[in-house]
Amino acid sequence: MAKNKIVKRPRGRPKLRHGGYSFMRSGKIPADKPEIERYLTWLRLKYIDDLGPEEADLTAGQAVLLNKLITLEGLTRCIEVMASREEKVMLPQRYMSYVNTIVKICQVRVSPLSGQKTGSFKVHSVPALNDFIFSI
Description:
mainly alpha
C-alpha cells in the first residue's frame, strides 16, 4: 500500500514582489524601477500645470488629492511593471479598487477660489511607460 505524501506549503515571503506597498509606506520607488519615478515626476508636473501655474497656488484640498493620486498611481505602476515582466502573475485583489480610486480622484477637481467642484483634470496623452525606461 502506497503512503500518502505530505505536501509542504512554501513558507515566508513570496519570491516575486512588486514594491508598491513599500512605495506607499516610504515614498521611495524600488531601485530596479527608475522609469516609474521619472513617470510619476512627469505626471505630477502635468497635474500641477492643470491646477495652477505653480505648486504654491494649489489649495490644501488640491494638494492632498494630488499627493494621493501620485501615490496610488505609483502603486499601480509598480504592480503593472511586475506583471509585465513575468508571464504568470496574479494581480493583487485590491488592484482594481486602486485603479477605480484613481479614476474617481481624476473626476473631482476643487476650484482654488470657491472650493466648488469644477469638473475633471485635463486629459493628457500619457506616454507609454517604455518611454521613461530609456529617457534620462
